[in-house]
Amino acid sequence: SGCTRPLLVSMALLTARARQAKSSATLASAAAAKAATTSPPESVNFDEKTRRCLRIARDFFGRDLSGLRVLDLGAGEGGLALEFAAQGANVVCVDGRRMNVAKAEFVASALGLDIEFRCQDVRALPTTESYDLVLCYGLLYHLDAKSAVQLLRAIGGVAARLLILDTHFSTHPTEGLEIDGIPYHGHVVQE
What we know:
By secondary structure, this protein is α/β, with parallel strands linked by helices. It is built from 6 helices and 7 strands, in the order H-H-H-E-H-E-H-E-E-H-E-E-E. Helix 1 (11-21) runs antiparallel to helix 2.
């Protein structure tokens, strides 16, 4: 069945696994991985966005997330991907920065989590795949308006059940533009 509660990762565990690997580069990575570790929801240090995301997923899918097919787009260092994998979900983690993917791969390996990592531009999202849950946190403002709209359309094609999107929004549109003949209004946020 898989884990049913968020995983508590200690630096001692990461350091011990790194020492087992007998690699000074891995030891340095273990020290750098401290920021990628996670805590149980009752902990003060548990990331509020992660807690909220897990709560939304559990409200929608039920408490047991085992077997859920999850796509984490623009995953950064993989915090959400790691948490969902710890819950038993089948996770695909996508980020365009090799260093971010390497950090997430290291932590997943140290924790014994099975995650499919892809270092690719999110705009190259394969539309033939299907996921129960798509996570898109803090990604859209990195894209130009047309690419953001096209990515959202592509996500609509692969999100079979739920999209959790966290981004900037505007209650008072200041700009308008037309993409593929459809007018959009909002406020452009520069990275």
